[in-house]
Each structure stands twice: as structure tokens, then as C-alpha cells.
Design the sequence.
């Protein structure tokens, strides 16, 4: 964590997240914009489909299922880029920043650059963030207040589905049965199972934090329209 390789790849992803959508917006047409989005979505889906076969231990298949939140967020981001699903955008906007961003800051991999694990991990997580910002800038999508609550409630339903799978298979998807082995925000939320309750206000706080730029922009626009 925070090695030169880690910091370098974070800077690259940050540059692509900001620069790619703005560059495409200036130099390409609408049809080309959609072609790029579809290509990015297909590539992201390919990454997630091939990842268990390349990175995973298929003899230990129970732990290679795409059931972590970032796995689902990556799949939904890929589909969203292909078919422009606004509902999937709502989910991936909050799940992407809440899950993928945290995963990139505190990566849960043991093999660094130039191991294949390193590339799969950061490409998969980085494309979630890039894809969400791409849709925000080029599809002109944006979350609303209801988006935040839809993402939160859907997250709760998904956790309720994953919990019995963990119990049956003896796995720990979404870290419902134990904290990540690497340092993370979970370390400050108490022991299991109490940190699961602590995650509720933390998730709501971060969801509102990610929504706040749009909330502030709406307030500014209303004040300009009604300068009283």
C-alpha cells in the first residue's frame, strides 16, 4: 500500500478519469462517443469474466465468484455503458465511488507490478470510476436525491442475498463475515458483527458526500434564478 507502483497507478487512473471524458467531449461526435462507451463496457465485462480464470484458483472456486460489491459494480458499469441504463448509473455512481475508490486506496492484493493480478485489480476497479464519470460527462447523467436512497436500499437487498451464500459456502463476500485482511476503514468501525451496523451511517455519509457536488450546484442555480 502506497508504494511507488500503487501511487503511480492511482495517478494514471485519476488522469484518465478526468482527462478522457473531457477530451472525447471536445473532439468526437455523439455516435463515436457511444462507440467508445460500448467498447469500454465490453472490455470491462471481459475483464470481469476472464478474471477468475486468470487470477483465481479454480480449485477454490467458492472464493472466485463475482459477488463482492465491486464485482457487481463493474458488471453493472459495463452494461450501463453499453445500453445507457440510468438505473444502473444510479447504482454504480454510489457503489463505484464507495467501493471501487476504497478498494484502490487500500488494495487487497499481494502481488504488485508487473504481476497479472496487479493489472486485473486496478484495471477492473479503475474502469468503474472512469465509466461512471464518462456517463456523467458524456451521457449527461447525474444522480438525484432518490438515486442515493435507491442505491442504499438496493445495497441492503444485495447484502441480504449474499449473506446466506457466505454461510453456505463458507466465504466472506462483501466482508459480511469478517474484515478485509488489509488495512481499511473497517478497522475503525469496531469488531464483527458490530462493524456491520457501523457501516450503515458511514455508507449514508459517503453517499451524501458523493452526491454533494450536485446538491451544491442545484443550490447555486436556484439562488441565481431567485436572487432574493
Sequence:
Amino acid at each position: 500500500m502506497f508504494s511507488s507502483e500503487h501511487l503511480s497507478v492511482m495517478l494514471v487512473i485519476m488522469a484518465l478519469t478526468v482527462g478522457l471524458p473531457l477530451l472525447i467531449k471536445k473532439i468526437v461526435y455523439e455516435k463515436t462517443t457511444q462507440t467508445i462507451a460500448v467498447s469500454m463496457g465490453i472490455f470491462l465485462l471481459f475483464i470481469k469474466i476472464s478474471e477468475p480464470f486468470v487470477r483465481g484458483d479454480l480449485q477454490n472456486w467458492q472464493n472466485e465468484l463475482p459477488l463482492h460489491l465491486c464485482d457487481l459494480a463493474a458488471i453493472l458499469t459495463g452494461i450501463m455503458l453499453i445500453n445507457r441504463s440510468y438505473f444502473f448509473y444510479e447504482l454504480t455512481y454510489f457503489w463505484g465511488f464507495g467501493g471501487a475508490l476504497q478498494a484502490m486506496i487500500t488494495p487487497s492484493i499481494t502481488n504488485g507490478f508487473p504481476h497479472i493480478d496487479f493489472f486485473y485489480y486496478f484495471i477492473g476497479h479503475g474502469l468503474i470510476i472512469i465509466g461512471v464519470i464518462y456517463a456523467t460527462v458524456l451521457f449527461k447523467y447525474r444522480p438525484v436525491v432518490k438515486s442515493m436512497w435507491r442505491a442504499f436500499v438496493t445495497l441492503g437487498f444485495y447484502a441480504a442475498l449474499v449473506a446466506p451464500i457466505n454461510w453456505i459456502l463458507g466465504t466472506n463476500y462483501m466482508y459480511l463475515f469478517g474484515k478485509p485482511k488489509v488495512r481499511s476503514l473497517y478497522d475503525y468501525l469496531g469488531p464483527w458483527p458490530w462493524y456491520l451496523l457501523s457501516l450503515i451511517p458511514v455508507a449514508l455519509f459517503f453517499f451524501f458526500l458523493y452526491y454533494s457536488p450536485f446538491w451544491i450546484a442545484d443550490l447555486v442555480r436556484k439562488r441565481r434564478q431567485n436572487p432574493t
Remarks:
- Residues 194-225 form the longest helix (32 residues).
- The CA atoms of residues 53 and 64 lie 9 Å apart.
- The radius of gyration is 18 Å.
